[in-house]
Amino acid sequence: xxxxxxxxxxxxxxxxxxxxxxxxxxxxxxxxxxxxxxxxxxxxxxxxxxxxxxxxxxxxxxxxxxxxxxxxxxxxxxxxxxxxxxxxxxxxxxxxxxxxxxxxxxxxxxxxxxxxxxxxxxxxxxxxxxxxxxxxxxxxxxxxxxxxxxxxxxxxxxxxxxxxxxxxxxxxxxxxxxxxxxxxxxxxxxxxxxxxxxxxxxxxxxxxxxxxxxxxxxxxxxxxxxxxxxxxxxxxxxxxxxxxxxxxxxxxxxxxxxxxxxxxxxxxxxxxxxxxxxxxxxxxxxxxxxxxxxxxxxxxxxxxxxxxxxxxxxxxxxxxxxxxxxxxxxxxxxxxxxxxxxxxxxxxxxxxxxxxxxxxxxxxxxxxxxxxxxxxxxxxxxxxxxxxxxxxxxxxxxxxxxxxxxxxxx
Length: 410
What we know:
This protein is an alpha+beta fold and about 400 residues long. The chain has one domain (about 10-410): Thiolase/Chalcone synthase (Peroxisomal Thiolase, Chain A, domain 1). The chain is built from 13 helices and 17 strands. Helix 3 (about 55-70) crosses helix 4 and helix 6 (about 205-225) packs across helix 8 (about 245-260). It starts with 7 loop residues before the first strand and ends with a strand.
């Protein structure tokens, strides 16, 4: 990639389901101390998708919001990539449904990327290469991360569920974040830390092993990106990580600081532990409030943290450097550096999803469990009525008839 070309994120938007569960409510229903979820995981709420809300509907809603809020003409989009690990078909990509429902031009490269939670980062870097190569011919790319994290009722993973989509417009004149091509580092290793067989609606995971794989991948990708640099964190204004649950960001930041200090950090070493916590509170914690409200959204988790940072401090941090780390189980990862654009502060309100989050409906545990059971049969349902789930005014999945999925605006 030519370093003289400025490529990065030009627009961002989040869209998610209309309902949520309070983690404290779930904890009490499962006979667990609420602090285990709210403090132990760092989560407050998790978004819950109804049978009529799927990866297609959320991808389209997020894409439409990004285009409209940042005044991007759909005709400018020459590549559409949807990163997801919860697709709706083994062959037909979510991206083709989204291409049609967003009204994009037929002269548009369109595909889906799958590598667990890494799919959207793969789409971002691929679209950057497409632009820098000259193939874009002045056009932009639309990259959408859309997922529903589902682990089943009463399972250990239940409190780390969530649902949502983040859409990114990528261009050679990015108004939000420029990605520095020579600081993009990658890592891949075949591991069985998290996977979902074709016959299962729910993922399987080796939780402790997956955390270790995440941290190993962080080390490998960072080394590929910046080498054995020992002053990186001091040069950054924010560190963003893949966030399957909020407290994972602390574990990740600890690993980065240990790489710089050259030794492990524990609470027994008061000075190092204080240095770690102060660094985390400055560089990471402020940008995790949306993740704590939405829950795990797989491919979009990292980019939801980016939205959080830009909506709060886009103007204040203009021109400053940040780091981004994406991890997908299985496993693949990327660590890269970016510079917040000088114009980012103008778009803080445009990308802020808090008004929409405030309109969500709080579910009782009985309502939540009913939605989960209904969703498990949704792919085979011939007819679904959004009104039955309290939905109106959006794009919804309305059933599969003659083996074809149908979407309608209600």
